[in-house]
């Protein structure tokens, strides 16, 4: 055997060893937990054969607590580039089979390298987390490693999309890398995220709680809103990430991929002409509207189980990706509150950062009153949504279906927040407030002087309704560009988006705004 062949064999053997991560026993253990390994995850996610791995032979340099004996080629993370649907992505997967995926200085260097490459190339970064956190034996060097990653997360924000999958533990300060990224996906039952684990919680607050109830996928999908997606299986998770990527561009200078549209843009949806109940206080399901107007009725929802009174997600019109923000009358009458405002604001900002037009479907009775809201700073959170809409320079089309009252009218993409096209269904009620509230303020004193105060107030309510519960006052002042037949909504949005394709709008020069937080 020539020396060259010998060296090549050595390389092949080293590669094979590296591919085993923490070794066969550790892989078996990982499988027994119902989890895939880092390399298996990458293979499942990317186009077949497209993964190009870097730093496969990198080793940690720690000698504390016997770490010199715990050396594995590549250390606890697999990192590199690949393609998804033919588009370049950079990605890394923490390898739990190597020292519990705990983050070493070396791992941080590997991760930062691919993050830097992603920024240079203008490609998304996908991080798959499955780690015991900072590698304890490395002390400050491990912490510094996190710091390096966080800083890159921050600098990459709004430049390239960043997606985090949580496939196992993600605890302590380690949660802040996912938290700084644009989208988080958590595995149901096998992942958790929290700042302090159950034992510390018990010591500090006395609460008895397990990992799942403290920071499992369902908690973060429904209560905290930390996660945007959950998945039952890792296969589902990978399909979800691929689908998400199909709606978004690779960086902030590009447009999202356009797909061929087989759904006629002038498709009239007669069902919409008969969708709204006669009683304006009765609910209907906003999903019916979304599914009726988007290409092939498709809608890719984000944060589906959090703050269900507002719906956000991606869809396409004439093959073009858009972000939909819609009030949901069938959940708390579509009222805006702290969580709905946070959810909407974050989504609008993502769309704006990545050149994705925003289509808003409005049916909102106002902001939720009460101490629960006020004490939790609904003022500031509402202002976040307002700020996000007002700052967004992407094409913005707002369709008002029914109620659009008071502050919530302004917040939800009104004309003064530089929406480009504002349409209203004939059923719209665009006013300072609803009839009964308005009449109570305006006519209560006078009612007391009447023989039949109730009848008087009812008469005044009718008068108010006649005057304000329609779109024509707003249209009269040009705050609504057109009143449209509901069944034409799809066509008007498609044509509007085509018209707005060349939109150019800038913000005043500044370092950055001071968003209310
Ligand atoms: C070094 C670690 C480790 C860590 C796990 N391991 N976490 N090594 N540093 N942080 C090692 C274990 O010693 C073990 O090594 C192997 O990984 C697998 O771990 P097990 O405990 O056997 O697995 P399991 O029973 O599944 O439990 C997983 C776990 C647990 C829940 C993650 O290991 C754990 O509680 N780890 C510590 C978590 C933690 O407190 N991390 C620090 C958080 S603070 P061997 O050789 O036996 O296989 C933090 C600060 C970040 O991260 C700050 C950023 C700003």
Number of strands: 17
Overall structural class, as computed from helix and strand content, comes to alpha/beta
Q: Compute the CA-based radius of gyration.
A: 27 Å
Say which molecules are bound, naming each kind only once.
hexanoyl-coenzyme A
- Distance from N terminus to C terminus (CA atoms, Å) equals 67 Å
Uncertain segments of ≥5 residues (pLDDT<50)? Answer: none
Sheet-strand content, in percent, reads 15-25%
Mean pLDDT: 97
User: Per the principal axes of the C-alpha atoms, what is the gross shape?
Assistant: elongated
How many H/I helical runs? 19
Biggest sheet descriptor:
8 strands, mixed
DSSP helix fraction? 25-40%
Protein name: Propionyl-CoA carboxylase beta chain
Domain CoA carboxyltransferase C-terminal: 264-511
GO cellular component, one term: acetyl-CoA carboxylase complex
Keywords: Ligase
